[in-house]
Amino acid sequence: MSPSLNSFAIGITVILIFYYYYYLLITKPRSSKLKSPPQAGGAWPIIGHLPLLAGRELAHIRLAELADKYGPIFTIKIGIYPALIVNSWELAKELFTINDAAVSSRPKFTAARILGYDFVNFGFSPYGDYWREMRKIVALELLSNRRLELLKHIRASEVKDSIKNVYKLWTIKKDEAGQTLVDMSSLFNDINADVILRMVAGKRYCSAGNGGEGEAWKLKKTFRDFFHLAGLFVLRDALPFMGWLDFGGFEKAMKRNAKELDRIGSEWLDEHRSKGDHKQQDFMDVLLSVIDGPHIFGHDADLVKKVTAMTLIAGGTDTVTVSVTWGLALLMNHPTALRKAQEELDIQVGKERLVTESDIEKLVYLQAIVKETMRLHPAGGLTSREFNEDCTIGGYHIPAGTRLLVNLYTIHRDPRVWSNPSEFEPERFLNKHKGVDVKGQHYELIPFGAGRRACPGIGLGILMNHLLLASFLQAFEMSRPSNEELDMRSSAGLTNSKVTPIEVLLKPRLPAYLYQ
Fold first, then answer.
1. Rounded to an integer, what distance in angstroms lies between the CA atom of residue 171 and that of residue 167?
2. By CB count within 10 A, which of 139, 148, 280, 304 is most buried?
3. Cα separation of 325 and 488, whole Å?
4. Rounded Cα distance, 454 and 82, in Å
């Protein structure tokens, strides 16, 4: 071995030994009197349980399998970092009520640092004054019930225009059976993108006939890449001393994506500033009005405005698209439930007008479908937090700095709570679980998370899920392109999206004048 290679090998060995003893130090209980949760077996020195999580199986499913063996609360080691895995609604309630302040921070992952511009993105930022201020601005000025009511015309017009466009497509491409094949995943994405784009930036790029196709494609790809990259495992987050290797080139891709998002945000901010009139026409106007001065809590004010707008657009588009796509996919595989939903629409709304948001409260079966969809396929399979202080969970001592993963997959499929937990049964929300909602107050069903760090877009997410499903179920007959059931596998990423797009055969079921 050459001297240079020998020196390199010695250096790596010294680093590994150092981190091994550091690893033992930070994972050792601080006192023998403090009771620690059980630790899953199979941990390797230094790399911990990474081999268990490195397979093809999605992390929330693999962790659910470990829960069958180790119970509702246990720990694993993600490289040198300890992580608490919580798998029951009782423990989730204990976390997000009694200990909510202690678990309201996010781990400082590489994606949060790069894609979040050193944690300026309030969705990734640590718990503190800056996060509280930005959360308040977003909640009051964009996502409050009052603001959503004022902007309901945007949602209504985008959905109606999309139905018209699909009808036009049908008139051109219908086959001998009077049907045409439509990629509903892409369609839902375009509608959601344009709704949130108009709300946040006053833009409309994605729907057919609006904007250049090249710009629309580039915009959608940028936001899609953001969510994909934000959910990827980066070696640095488990073994920081190995981060320089950048396995897979993920960090490089994150930097490219962050640069593109910054470019888009800068262009939009300059456009809004040049208007000179910021009377709350859209959320970027609001940000220009309410954030004065060059800095906010030590962050550059213009960067905060850009990043906040980009965060809301990316989050508002992807999470709703994922949920409503899963909902339609489940209905395609359960035609009896689909027919019941359409029968309810015919009774409660009729076929002489299009359904509106004001009709939703009467569509109890549709509401049950949305709840059941979010139970089986929450937008995120795992809720990630970090303990910012020592506390006790389930009788166990959890030291500050421990990462937290709440497994929604196990909670939402707990057989103690849900009969036939893996089956799609919307009727459960019409009887035994009639009073259960998805807004973070019933801990057996928390698709948006819970506590002060729950998703701020719960109201908009529920509205869009109801409106999109109701509108397209009313307007079109739908069927699978073959007798085979749709592929229901999930993909890795920040959101629990469907692996394959959902393509459906459509034909109109309303009078022609309603599509004009």
1. 6
2. 304
3. 11
4. 23
CA dist list (Å): 33 to 24, 130, 493: 18, 37, 39
Q: How does DSSP classify residue 424?
A: -
DSSP, res 277: -
Dist CA 444 CA 456 (whole Å): 19
Closest alpha carbon to 404 in 171, 19, 64, 106: 106
Query: What is the Cα Rg of the chain in Å?
Result: 24
What number of H helices and E strands is found in the chain? 17, 11
Of 375, 365, 476, which is closest to residue 421 (Cα–Cα)? 375
Cβ atoms 393, 99 nearer than 8 A: yes
Q: Determine the Cα–Cα distance for residues 450 and 287; give it in Å rounded to an integer.
A: 26
Q: Which two tokens stand for residue 68?
A: 């069958």
DSSP annotation string for 23-62: HHHHHS-S-TTSPPPPB-S-PBTTTBTHHHHSSSS-HHHH
Residue bearing tokens 């397979």: 55
What is the phi/psi pair of residue 301, to 5°? -65, -40
Higher pLDDT, 55 or 14: 55
State the pLDDT at residue 104. Answer: 95
Could you give the 3-state DSSP secondary structure of residue 354?
coil
Which pair of tokens denotes residue 427? Answer: 């009727």
Average the pLDDT over each of 44-53, 204-213, 222-231, 396-405 and give the range with the smallest value. Answer: 204-213
In contact, 40 and 64? CB cutoff 8 Å: no
Q: Between the CA of residue 319 and those of 53, 170, 201, 385, 458, what are the distances in Å?
A: 24, 28, 19, 19, 10
Reduced to 3 states, what is the DSSP secondary structure of residue 405? strand
Q: Reduced to 3 states, what is the DSSP secondary structure of residue 105?
A: strand
